[in-house]
Amino acid sequence: MWFVDGWKMGWPPGAPHTWDMLGLLGLALTGIALLYVSSLPDFAVMRDHSTGFRHKLYSRLASNFHGSKKQWFFIQNRVGVLGAFYFMMLIFTHYLISVDFSMSLVPGWKDAIYPAFHALQGLQCAVAMTLLGMFLLRQFGGLKNYIGLDQFWGPAKLLLASSLLWFYFWWSGFIVYWYGRTPAEQDVLSFIMFESYKTPFFIAFVLCFVVPLTMLIWNRIRKSILGPTLIGLSVLIGTFFHRISVYVSAFSTKDVSAHSLGGVPPAILPNIGDVLMIIGTIAGAAAMYLIASKIFPTVSIWEVKENLLYRRESTFKRVKVLILGKPE
Positive or negative CA dihedral for 84, 86, 89, 95? Predict the structure, then answer.
């Protein structure tokens, strides 16, 4: 199978699996802590407006939060600290996964840009997933009054910027190998991009860079709800195919201890087990989100209320304009 063959590469026990699992565990715990701290005010609201089992559950989750000045100061500072740690863990975990499970398995592939490129793709996918999730919640979750045009317009700008950075990081790593042109470097480029796995790579290039760039430069598309959502879906599909080109190729190499590939290995095609594994992974992620949405609010109540306090409409000459205040 695609991914299972890589476990037979002769790695010593505990390496690199131990460090990668520690990185993933640290990232997950930091993310859960960030989500919990930022949800404390919402837990308190649901505690005060629920009965029975839900009241007991949210009483435990909200602890003794009652909205004092000290507690709000605690939340604002802890969210900032946990957000910084989460970002650091995200970059570090991407570095571990990308190096251990793709680059280190392909003889002759030595690219200092690739881990940063891998992390950037993760951030690009995060923006794309946010857009897709907001669209689904707006259409099927009854949140049209809370998720409007502004919530799509902002991430669309980030998606455009990350798409430009996608090309920049890819080009920075690619051009070194292109100009080096040693046999080992040419084999790596041919294996991952231009021969064996050229189809998934070019699909990723089009969906992650060409489509977002050519579409999001237009104000009418960028400042809409459906446009950024479809482009976000394009990015997610493109990233999936890029992961095929780097991970499936890496796990299909024969001798990971060699100094070069010594030729271009053929591509490994998926079987029914791989297809079912992919479908199950997507379904499992969706199930985890739906379970979490039963406990955590999908839209932060206190952030929506705070945003309403800092904005008002006013008339400037004959035009209605939105005035936004700063909390500090």
Answer: negative
Contact 192, 106 (CB under 8 A): yes
Give phi and psi for 324, each to the nearest 5.
-115, 135
Contact between 140 and 182 under an 8 Å Cβ cutoff? The reply is: no
* pLDDT per position as a tens digit, 223-275: 999 999 999 999 999 999 999 999 998 888 887 777 778 788 888 888 898 88
The C-alpha atoms of residue 24 and residue 240 are separated, in whole angstroms, by: 19
> Beta-carbon neighbour count of residue 22 at 10 Å?
12
Contacts of 118 (CB under 8 A, 6+ apart): 94, 95, 97, 98
Domain ranges of the chain: 1-101, 107-266
For residue 222, how far is the Cα from the chain centroid? Answer: 20
Q: Residue 183, preceding bond cis, omega within 30 degrees?
A: no
The amino acid occupying position 50 is: S
- Asked if 220 contacts 75 with a C-beta cutoff of 8 angstroms, the reply is no
Measure the CA–CA gap between 110 and 184, rounded to whole angstroms: 10
- Between strands 319-324 and 311-316, the pairing is antiparallel
- In terms of Cβ atoms closer than 10 Å to its own Cβ (0-12, 13-18, 19+), residue 140 is exposed
Q: What is the pTM (predicted TM-score) of this model? A: 0.85
Whether the CA torsion 191, 195, 197, 202 is positive or negative: it is: positive
What residue type is assigned to position 280 of the chain?
A: G
Q: How does pLDDT run across 21-77, given as a tens digit for each residue?
A: 888 899 999 999 999 999 898 888 888 888 888 888 888 888 888 888 888 888 888
